[in-house]
Design a protein that fits this description.
Layout: E1 8-9, H1 25-37, E2 43-45, H2 57-71, E3 77-80, H3 86-98, E4 103-106, H4 116-129, E5 134-138, H5 140-143, H6 149-158, E6 163-166, H7 171-183, E7 191-194, H8 200-205, E8 210-211, H9 220-231, H10 235-249, H11 262-276, H12 294-306
Parallel strand pairs: 1-8, 2-3, 3-4, 4-5, 5-6, 6-7, 7-8
Helix pairs in contact: 1-2, 3-4, 6-7, 9-10, 11-12
Length: 310
């Protein structure tokens, strides 16, 4: 079971692939060790940074079984159950919990537009079927639905949701949830986590419980250090560390936008950085994403060097 509330740095774990696009389990386990050694407080598999949308159901299960088996209860493992509709999500819940996940993370339904009442029903049905806590994932850029703060807070009060991972980039909306959870006596043990690499310090300043930054794959120790500085109230040092991480985050833009999308560039850069750091064997991303060129990988290396990581 996850701590209530879950706090600290919980990276969304990349999924290393072989050149023929199968899950590279040895590289995945080295990545887990790299994150654990960096001091992280939990692991989130099968999220956006994990390329969950590109993985087959079989590959998803391989990832969860490999990570939970390797971690062996040392850290909580959260697993994404992201899919278009409630019945499909419930299938994933059964799979990832059987594979050992300590919590499940679900977006709102997508493809078909949903009403807030339908979103609430979706989460209630997931919670009724799940033997582990349910965390809501606010991802409007992909799901095309912003989770309403009042729905999240009401579901938290009901005990349906154990937490929120907010990747909306809406700091004001995020604050609404943080303050609402703090001020409602019927909400206890609810975790509010930011998914932003760039405003982690600001989110912690307004009361976030922790962060789920994709860049923490590359520099877990940096985000753990940032979290520690914020909790100690050393905001000047925290700002300097956040600014170093913001500069490092520039690596997500190395891909030529004339030939690839932002996702290909960002995920390709994370994996290239991990390969350059000797953590994973291959920087391949799932099809149909476009790979980085050798010149773009070289630029990734310059960002790593600038951040003191090479």
């Amino acid at each position: 079971m996850i701590p209530t509330p879950l706090t600290g740095v919980v990276p969304p774990v990349c999924t290393p692939l072989t050149p023929d696009r199968e899950v590279d389990v040895p590289s995945l386990l080295r990545l887990v060790d790299h994150l654990v050694e960096g001091g992280v407080h939990g692991l989130f598999v099968l999220g956006s940074t994990s390329e969950a949308a590109y993985l087959t159901d079989r590959q998803r299960r391989v990832v969860v079984e490999a990570v939970t088996g390797h971690v062996g209860g040392r850290l909580p493992v959260l697993a994404g159950v992201i899919d278009m509709t409630t019945p499909r999500v419930l299938d994933h819940v059964r799979e990832v919990t059987a594979a050992g996940a300590d919590a499940v993370v679900a977006t709102a339904p997508f493809y078909a537009r949903t009403h807030p009442a339908e979103i609430a029903r979706h989460y209630r049905l997931i919670a009724a079927a799940s033997p582990v806590p349910v965390v809501a994932y606010d991802l409007p850029v992909s799901v095309h639905t912003k989770l309403p703060a009042e729905v999240i807070l009401d579901l938290a009060a009901e005990g349906v949701l154990a937490g929120l991972k907010d990747s909306s980039g809406d700091l004001a909306g995020f604050r609404t949830v943080v303050v609402g959870a703090r001020n409602r006596p019927d909400i206890t043990g609810f975790s509010v986590l930011t998914g932003s690499e760039l405003i982690t310090d600001a989110a912690l300043a307004v009361g976030a419980d922790g962060a789920v930054p994709g860049l923490a794959n590359v520099d877990p120790a940096g985000y753990v250090r940032l979290d520690r500085l914020c909790r100690a109230g050393d905001w000047e040092s925290a700002r300097a560390e956040q600014e170093r991480l913001c500069a490092l985050f520039g690596l997500v833009g190395v891909g030529d936008p004339g030939r690839m999308g932002g996702g290909s560039s960002a995920l390709g850069a994370f994996k290239a950085a991990l390969q350059l750091r000797g953590v994973i064997d291959c920087a391949a991303t799932a099809e149909p994403q476009v790979p980085l060129s050798p010149e773009e990988v070289e630029r990734v290396g310059k960002f790593l060097a600038g951040a003191g990581l090479l």
